[in-house]
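Here is a typical protein record:
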Amino acid sequence: MAIGATIHTFDVQLSDVDRGVYEQLSLKVAQHASETVPFMVTRVLAMCLEHEEGIAFGLGLSGGDEPAVVVRDRTGALAAWIEVGAPEAERVHRGSMAADRTAVYTHRDPERVAARWAGKRIHRAEDVRLVWFDPGFVDAVADAVARRTAMVVSVMEGVLYAEVNGTTLTSSVHERRAG
């Protein structure tokens, strides 16, 4: 018998001063049996840092044709394709062709992620954003996560301040282009 997903609830108070986004989010996150907590945390952080109207978790691990996070416009058209982890160049290429905006949030070594893409075809690679955090940040957030997690996420001048179940953490939000 297959092991089912573990459901986590994140109550997030989001204040992204850099983008002028202020929201109260209640996120139900299904952690797939094969998904690590740092990967799940990176999905949640991507959801917060990309938050806009029409954003949702994609089918991710269980649905090969969707990224971890999607943004659809009011017509249902794909506006943003947001991957998590270390996706293959082919997947990033497909996402960049399908959506106006493409980003990859990683909890892994960003240089290794980018090296896997070197010399491979990625549509509009110069527009694809690779986003990561300071070493140890995602693991520290993962250590503070419970099945029900209260988070305060603030972004100001490229720095992410997070309070996770009473633990306060800080990281720069690093970014580079795929191409």
Q: What stands out?
A: Helices lie at 37-49, 89-98, 110-117, 137-144. The chain is about 20% helix and 40% strand. The chain has a mean pLDDT of 94.
